[in-house]
Amino acid sequence: MSLDNLLASIQDRSAIIGIVGLGYVGLPLMLRYSESGFRVLGIDIDGDKVARLNKGESYIEHIPASAIAEARRRGFEATADFSRGAEADALIICVPTPLNRHREPDLSFVLDTMDALTPHLRRGQIVSLESTTYPGTTDEELRPRIESRGLRVGEDVFLVYSPEREDPANPDFVTKTIPKVCGGATPACLKAGVALYGAAVDRVVEVSSTRAAEMTKLLENIHRAVNIGLVNEMKIIADRMGIDIHEVIRAAATKPFGFVPYYPGPGLGGHCIPIDPFYLTWKAREYGLQTRFIELAGEVNRAMPQWVVGKIAEALNERGRAIRGCRVLVLGIAYKKNVDDMRESPSVELMEQLVRMGAAVEYSDPHVPVFPKMRQHHFDLKSVPLTPESIAGYDLVLLATNHDAFDYGLIASHARLIVDTRGVYLQPAANVVKA
Catalytic residue among 94, 182, 272, 326, which? Predict the structure, then answer.
């Protein structure tokens, strides 16, 4: 299939879209292409996910089963068979890019996925990587694998990088309305990528190369990580001075220019902000550069759970108690409010630190009824329902994630001691400590 034929198949919706990796990025993208009139083939190594999707079920809270069922009626199918990648005209890779235990990039998911797809590539396909990674990954890792098949990038196969920009459970920004950055390995690749994403999203933003697109994603997340690191440091200073940092942020945010509010917390969570900056710091070393500013922000943010535990110890000590032997209820274990996403959640690190110090820890989270299986963490726990009796039974309530579903008035009325890491309680109270 030539480029012209590929573009025509995208335009008339006869192209088959393959989404590889059906998680928080891939699943919304699958739904968007299905809604746009395409037949979508989903590929994932998790057989349980595949089976559930083919039954019309969802495993992500903010994506309703009805949306999956409707996609199935439109022709969506999930499979764990990577050889079926040959059926797709477009292969969009949406797999994790974590850090290893040395805090270095772990591209194993991307490379294993590409290695599984490579034997089944054919002429006329477009391959797009959406996983966040360091500049050069698409050119240095994916392109050689494609060309090892004797396929010419830009003539036989069209290679692009287009970073994901999902914000789970944010009703104001959905896949269709979030502008899509796209860079191609060649001008022909870029043309194919713009056509592919232009068929599903309102606006495609062209950049000059895959490296520029990769760097764009890192800049977006490093911008947030650095500013959150700044406000977390400001929180520590304000706390020592007896100033409420949340009051200060609210006041500063009234300035109509030159200030964007960022909010402190118990640490960074999610798959992007705690991880992505270190992809750039690692790659920068290849060029003899040190990213001191980025790394300093990372140090501040990584230290926040320990600082919160220190505030807990201080608050208990003032009441004649120690962490050891205390019953602690953690409110919210998802990484941000109103989602069930547990990736890199600072709540889990807080739980582990408290357990190591001898506390008996439980949690309440309406979005996570049972503590999920995680690669590095495990608690055999279920969410505790919040009642006056259950709240009063704990020595300390740690507000780690500020879900809207919590009844904060009920909690304040019955908790012996609250450590608030999110600035929910604006007015001073005898049983509330800000952290």
Answer: 272
